[in-house]
Specification:
The chain is built from 13 helices and twelve strands. With 360 residues, the chain is an alpha/beta fold. GO terms for molecular function: carbohydrate binding.
């Protein structure tokens, strides 16, 4: 019997025959049983706007469809791994039956996962693969994200980029996703362009990215920087601020990730070349369905699964495909999917750029 099935078998004995029926996935959520339970949701930070704007409400909505009587207990760690560990302990003390965990620090989160296992509580690793005996994992193929970012940069530079160098602004060292983005980007960029400066960005801080970019400008010279690989939209924004502060008016192409509204608006006006759109609703839906499956002891049966090795176990995983967004396909991606509406994007000074891109 699998570990998650043993957990629920014990829970069933203790609750004197709790009736459960799983929601394994698919287009329509099925009821998870007449009696509800608590689901712990631990998200890592609030510097990136996506988590409270999209991830949390999408996860809560799907859980509400799958288990109307279930209660979601939500905590945000604000980039503090110790705080996240304390929050996990708090939720475990409140008898959550399953944890959805987006780790601040994947290695440190191994203690959280082990603590949950000791209490018979399964863990769904969301967006970032935590260490320890994780039950399920859902994210995007991180190396493909980095490859897509790098390809979009090379496309902007043209077939024979020469006469300068790019700056690589990678993500947070404690985020295992960032390592995947970096590997994927290097697989495309190495040998194709000169990488003049490269640095990681603690906590995905836009201010740290700005400081690092300013140092790169000083070292290389603004006129020698032909492009910027920025691992997400926050770091892209910091890089663009540094370039502007250095007096650069003809900005080089800058990549990003997460399709934050400010980044999409920068793309429309030409300040940022691209972002990566990771459709959060499907990811959140899979996480919720995995959580219900783990909590009720039923196999997840939604998207096709693979296995991801986190050093402790080969974790059943769903890895979703990323999409590169440039000015040419904003309308056909984030707008067509309802991620943003035209009124949200096309405010004030962005109205003309939206009109030129066919967004009305």
């Amino acid at each position: 019997m699998k570990r998650i099935q043993r957990r629920v078998a014990v829970a069933g004995i203790l609750t004197l025959g709790l009736l459960v029926a799983g929601c394994g996935g698919g287009d329509a959520a099925e009821t998870a049983g007449d009696e509800g339970y608590r689901v712990g949701l631990l998200l890592p930070e609030s510097k990136t706007t996506r988590y409270d704007t999209f991830d949390r409400p999408f996860i809560e909505a799907r859980l509400g469809e799958a288990c109307a009587d279930c209660e979601v207990l939500y905590r945000n760690a604000d980039s503090d791994a110790r705080q996240q560990a304390a929050q996990a302990e708090e939720l475990l003390d409140q008898d959550v039956r399953v944890l959805i965990l987006d780790a601040v620090d994947a290695t440190a989160a191994g203690a959280v996962v082990q603590g949950a296992e000791a209490r018979g509580v399964p863990v769904v690793a969301y967006d970032r693969l935590a260490a320890g005996p994780v039950d399920y994992y859902v994210s995007f193929d991180n190396e493909k994200v980095g490859q897509a970012q790098a390809r979009s940069l090379l496309e902007a530079l043209g077939p024979s980029p020469a006469g300068g160098a790019i700056v690589m602004i990678n993500g947070a060292p404690a985020d295992p996703n960032a390592a995947g983005f970096k590997r994927g980007a290097h697989a495309v960029l190495d040998g194709a362009v000169t990488i003049g400066r490269e640095f990681d960005t603690p906590d995905w801080s836009a201010e740290a990215a700005r400081t690092g970019m300013a140092a790169a400008i000083t070292a290389l010279g603004a006129e020698k920087i032909i492009g910027v690989y920025a691992a997400n939209d926050g770091t892209a924004g910091g890089a663009i601020e540094a370039l502007k502060a250095a007096g650069v008016t003809d900005l080089p192409p800058v990549t990003g990730q997460d399709a934050e509204i400010a980044a999409v608006q920068r793309i429309l006006t030409g300040e940022q070349h691209s972002t990566i759109y990771k459709a959060i609703k499907p990811q959140a839906t899979v996480a919720a369905d995995m959580a219900v499956a783990a909590a009720t002891g039923t196999p997840y049966a939604g998207h096709a699964t693979t296995f991801t090795d986190n050093g402790t176990a080969k974790v059943t995983s769903v890895l979703l495909p990323p999409v590169a967004v440039t000015r040419a396909n904003v309308k056909d991606t984030v707008v067509a999917d309802g991620f943003y509406t035209a009124p949200q994007l096309c405010t004030g000074s962005f109205a003309a750029a939206c009109h030129d891109a066919g967004i009305r």
